[in-house]
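We append the chain.
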Amino acid sequence: MIGLINTWLNRESNAKSILGMKIYYKLVGYLRLQIELDTYEGQLELNTEATVEEALHAIGIKGKPAMMLLVNKQLANRDTVLHEGANLRLVPIVGGG
């Protein structure tokens, strides 16, 4: 009986990680011109506990363009873990003089 319960629990936890989570993303400013994509905002379905780096890859961003990464309006880095419904914004770094 305990073996059946453990099998069921393992199956449930695996199902959750396969189903994933939805996050929302948006590229801001000249990043739209710098990074050639089909769309500059949208929704992604990622595995649970995915990072910003994985989201960037799923969006189609190659390399490491100069940009600030914001998750739910908070400064983030590429290792930041995302959660269901997170809002990821990619903001260009602007300089001048």
